[in-house]
Design goal:
The complex is a heterodimer. Chain A has nine helices and no strands. By secondary structure, chain A is mostly helical. The longest helix of chain A has about 40 residues. The interface between A and B is medium-sized, with 31 and 26 residues.
């Protein structure tokens, strides 16, 4: 390998990042407040968001239960099992809710976005659109991006709600803790502006990241079966890694 | 058109559910909409030592929360800790000779400010200062005092 080839290989991630950024600008540039954009976005919200609801809710419920179980086990040693709701609430709102929802969303919806757009490209549908003077970025990519941006915070809220319910079921129903203490600890110890809104902001960023990555890889997939497959894989891998990296960055900057 | 309408309806329901979940969480599982701190007035007090009193620590009268600590600052001239507190306006008849103490909930629990109402007929108003205060009891100081006391006694007996 020559030196220039090595440099080119080392710079490739930088070039990819630049291309993703340019793609984002291109999508945002094609954003027009028309009725068809709204209708398309709503339709994608159904496909991307509403159909991820069941898996998000089931996972949220069990995450809440296991959090309560672990927390009670650990806190009982100090005679502090009353604090369980505070621990569950804080860790859920700040970290687990946004991150787990984002990872599940990447697996459930990110892959389907990438595969769908990739297949459209492989079968020549995107080229056909361009021939008909329809901008495929505006028509295909943008609604999916907006739908992801909109859905992930809402899914996070539902994940959190179900996880709180799971914690309620376990700690009040199974362990027999007092429900008044449970709720009052949440209402005095979990702060709306820091804990709750912090998590919502995070999930908004995660939603944008995942759907941007998914749309980008789908749109730039090689037009073959293997190309669609690798676009799907790349979407899950890159968006999971990005979610965890951005989680650290956002947490360290905004707390 | 028919199928399209169903999809729009389903995504509408999804959006509604998400927003409902947010509202439910915010009102039931966070301190949003808690009555204390909405309509409130500020009072302050000076302490020699506040130990690890933190912002948002509760302010209590008779064990019942009436407000919270807004800020803990150091007076650069007198080197006293100035604690600013927000008291809910429902409790607007606290006498102005009330005393403030830094207390601990439980043996190793969090610090809070305990107010002991006095007997004055004039009430505290926004911006007032409490003059009778008692600093936090710091465990290390207590222990070292006790140790030195016993040592001094032993030496005196010898």
């Amino acid at each position: 390998m020559t030196d220039s080839a090595k440099i080119a290989a080392a710079l490739r991630p930088l070039g990819d990042t630049g291309r993703i950024g340019l793609f984002l600008l291109r999508m945002l540039g094609s954003l027009r407040p028309t009725r068809s954009t709204l209708v398309n976005t709503l339709q994608q919200t159904y496909l991307v968001g509403a159909r991820s609801l069941v898996i998000i809710m089931i996972c949220g419920f069990f995450v809440g239960m296991v959090l309560a179980l672990q927390a009670i086990n650990a806190l009982e040693q100090f005679g502090a099992s009353d604090q369980v709701s505070l621990l569950v609430g804080k860790s859920l709102f700040r970290e687990l809710g946004p991150v787990l929802t984002a990872l599940l969303f990447a697996g459930r919806a990110g892959t389907s976005i990438a595969a769908e757009i990739g297949l459209m490209k492989a079968t020549g549908q995107l080229d056909a659109m361009e021939l008909m003077a329809i901008d495929p970025v505006e028509r295909i990519a943008l609604p999916r991006f907006l739908a992801g941006l909109l859905s992930v915070p809402l899914l996070t809220a539902m994940f959190n709600a179900l996880a709180i319910l799971g914690a309620v079921v376990f700690s009040l129903g199974v362990m027999g803790l007092d429900s008044g203490i449970f709720w009052s600890k949440l209402q005095t110890g979990v702060y709306f502006d820091q804990d709750f809104m912090g998590g919502i902001w995070k999930s908004l960023v995660f939603g944008g990241l995942i759907s941007l990555v998914a749309v980008y890889f789908g749109y730039h997939a090689r037009p073959t079966g293997a190309g669609v497959g690798s676009a799907t894989t790349n979407t899950v891998v890159l968006s999971s890694v990005l979610v965890l990296i951005f989680d650290f960055i956002m947490t360290s900057f905004f707390t | 058109m028919r199928a399209n309408y169903k999809v729009e309806l389903a995504s509408g329901i999804f959006l509604l559910l998400g927003i409902l979940a947010m509202i439910w969480l915010a009102t039931r599982a966070t301190n949003y909409g808690q009555e204390i701190g909405k309509d409130s007035y500020e009072i302050s007090a000076r302490f020699g030592n506040v130990a690890e009193l933190k912002d948002r620590a509760p302010v209590k009268i008779g064990g019942v929360m009436v407000g919270m600590v807004e800020a803990v600052e150091l007076d650069p001239v007198t080197f006293e800790a100035v604690v600013t507190m927000r008291i809910d306006t429902r409790f607007d008849e606290i006498p102005n000779d009330t005393s403030a103490t830094i207390l601990t909930s439980g043996v190793l629990g969090d610090r809070y400010v305990g107010l002991e109402p006095g007997g004055s007929f004039e009430v505290l108003e926004d911006g007032d200062e409490l003059f009778i205060t008692q600093s936090a009891v710091v465990l290390e100081q207590l222990i070292s005092k006790y140790l030195f006391n016993t040592q001094a006694k032993e030496e005196a007996e010898e």
